[in-house]
Amino acid sequence: MTWYNLIIIYIIIMKGFIFGFIDNLIVAISAIFGIHIDTYLSGQGSMGALYGALIGHTISDMIAGYTDFGYNIALNMGLGCICVIFIVFLYQNLNYKIFENKIN
C-alpha cells in the first residue's frame, strides 16, 4: 500500500466522519438550545429538546441535501421535515386537549 492510497482512504473516511460529526453536532446544539429556551420560559425542558432537535435535524438535512443533491432536493427534504414538526405539534395539542377533558 502506497502513501497515495493511504491518503485517499484517509480523505474518504474523514469526509464521512466530518459530515456525521457536524450533522449530529447541529442536532445536539439545537436540542440543548431548545432546552434552555424552554426552561427559561418556565417549562421542563422536554418540549424544547424535542422541537430543538426537530429544527436542528431539519437544518442539518437541508445542508446535507444541498451538498449531496442540490437545491431542489434540499428544499424537498426541508419541507418533509417541517411536515413532521407540524404533525408533532398537532399531536401534542390534541393529546393535551384529550387529557385535559379526561381530568375535568
UniProtKB/TrEMBL annotation:
The chain crosses the membrane at residues 6-35, 73-91. Keywords: Membrane, Transmembrane, Transmembrane helix. The keyword Transmembrane helix applies. This is Major facilitator superfamily (MFS) profile domain-containing protein. It comes from viral metagenome. The lineage of its organism: unclassified sequences, metagenomes, organismal metagenomes.
